[in-house]
Specification:
alpha+beta, two-stranded antiparallel sheet, 27% helix, elongated
């Protein structure tokens, strides 16, 4: 009996499970990354509107801010505006200073902090919150500090 079981087990193993080989199956292009680009927040009728700026990568915090400061670009949805001064800064730094806080310094050409309106601060806070969320899905940004002024995204990004 033991011999019969051993022979039957060997036949089953040699026969395989019935899956036939197939030619290679195409799977499309390889993934290029998590996002096509950072999500920037512009204004339409006074409301914040998200727009993905397709630059081929998510980029870091300064990259997202530079794209935001460039303003509305060709190909963005119509009717968008920005409260930020386009190209109006001399130096820009941004990074996570604590687990859920992003700190930004935007200086004018003469080295003094750039004065920004409340709407401009909202655009920055939402853009950096979205950038943080896209890169680190574990912790949301609780505070964005722009030139020592704390701000939270008012629409809960």
């Amino acid at each position: 009996m033991r011999r019969l079981v051993t022979v039957l087990l060997g036949v089953v193993l040699l026969a395989g499970c019935g899956v036939r080989p197939t030619p290679p199956v195409g799977g499309g292009d390889a993934p290029r990354g998590v996002a096509e680009g950072p999500t920037l927040y512009f204004l339409r009728g006074g409301s914040l509107v998200p727009v993905v700026r397709k630059i081929g990568k998510l980029g870091d915090y300064p990259t997202a801010l530079r794209e935001l400061f460039y303003g509305v670009a060709e190909g963005d949805p119509p009717g968008l505006t920005s409260a930020l001064p386009t190209g109006g800064f001399g130096e820009l730094t941004a990074g996570v200073t604590q687990r859920n806080t992003v700190e930004v310094r935007v200086l004018r050409g003469d080295g003094r902090p750039l004065t920004l309106s409340g709407a401009a601060l909202d655009q920055i806070a939402c853009t950096l919150s979205a950038r943080h969320l896209a890169a680190d899905r574990v912790y949301n940004v609780e505070s964005v500090i722009v030139n020592e002024v704390p701000r939270r995204c008012p629409i809960g990004v």
